[in-house]
Design brief:
Blueprint (H helix, E strand, L loop, with lengths): L1 H25 L7 E7 L6 H15 L2 E7 L7 H6 L9 E4 L8 H12 L3 E4 L15
Parallel strand pairs: 1-2, 1-3, 3-4
Helix pairs in contact: 1-2
């Protein structure tokens, strides 16, 4: 089972790599490394295992730098959520490995602005279920 999960995740990540790389090539991009932010912290699948696999896949391609922003957990306090503010503007693409509680309003606004201004967004597996009541996300 674990090998199937790893293989499936690798296929998804490699597809994402190809898409983002192709989009940059079409734009006439240079050889600079693309900046990736992986969002995780809550999911109905084992994000603690899948995020490192994605990180390794991105890094091993030689085309990306990768950071991870881990949200507070399901029992996160209001104070923890108040401190969690990913700076989307520092990245070319955000990869969501997150399926959990709604993000704080300030984070949602920053994310919407990131995408509206041309930032890339890739949803991985169960993260496609996140935020059913957030129109801009859907």
């Amino acid at each position: 089972m674990r090998n199937k999960l790893t293989l499936g995740l690798a296929v998804v990540v490699m597809s994402c790599l190809a898409y983002v790389g192709l989009a940059k090539k079409i734009e006439g991009g240079d050889d600079k490394l693309l900046r990736v932010l992986i969002i995780d912290g809550q999911n109905n699948h084992k994000w603690e295992s899948t995020t490192p696999v994605m990180q390794d896949a991105f890094k091993s391609s030689g085309r990306y730098t990768v950071d991870v922003s881990t949200s507070p957990g399901k029992k996160g306090t209001e104070e923890e959520w108040g401190k969690w503010r990913p700076d989307f503007s520092k990245y070319d693409v955000v990869v969501s490995n997150y399926n959990g509680q709604m993000w704080p309003g300030e984070v949602r606004t920053a994310f919407v602005n990131f995408v509206k201004n041309g930032g890339g967004f890739v949803v991985v597996h169960a993260a496609d279920n996140a935020f059913g009541m957030w129109p801009e996300y859907n």
